[in-house]
Amino acid sequence: MRYPTALSPGPAPLYHKLEQELRTRILSGEFKSGEVLPTEQRICSQYGVSRITVRRALETLIAEGLITRKRGVGTFYTPPQAAGIRSITLSGSLDEFLATRGVVEKDVLASCEAVAPEHVVRGLRLQSGGTVMRFDLLTVLDGLPIACSELYLPPAIGRKIDPADIQDRRLPIIRAIEQKLGFRVARAEQTLEADIARPIAAAQLGLEPMTPVLKTTRVYFDTAGTPIEMIISLMHPERYRYSMDFVARPRAV
Question: What is the CATH topology of the domain spanning 94-235?
Answer without folding.
Answer: Chorismate lyase (3.40.1410)
